[in-house]
């Protein structure tokens, strides 16, 4: 039988790390055009994209290492909700048609981290073990 008491915080941490790295990739695409430029995005970046990229750099890094995970995830969740309703929803009601599925998934995964914390291997555990 699987001991979820041992594995749940570790799997939460793996999800946190991978999600944080994927979120950081969006920032590197905006600022460094790495691994590629975002298709259709004008350069120089509009102010709203600079703000989004800055939020992605900070919150993505914090989430990846598990530092102030709950706060960073809450902010990132809000950014993804705003991105969905500003950029995707006006195109179509259906997420599969408006290409908003990644924004929805990021939003709710980050919302989960805001409630659950960073799990195992988070710097938050060194800062305040009760909040982990």
> Given the structure, what is the number of helices?
6
Count the strands? 0
Helix coverage percent of residues? Answer: 55-70%
- Strand fraction band? under 5%
Largest sheet: none
How would you describe this structure to a colleague?
It is a single chain. The protein has helices at residues 4-31, 47-65, 69-88, 95-98, 101-116, 124-127. It has six helices and no strands. The chain has one domain (11-33, 42-131). With 132 residues, the protein is an all-alpha fold. Helix 1 packs antiparallel against helix 2.
Give a brief description:
It contains 6 helices and no strands.
Question: Which helices and strands, and how do they pair?
Answer:
Layout: H1 4-31, H2 47-65, H3 69-88, H4 95-98, H5 101-116, H6 124-127
Comma- or semicolon-separated keywords:
132 residues, mainly alpha, 6 helices, globular, cell membrane, transmembrane, DoxX family protein
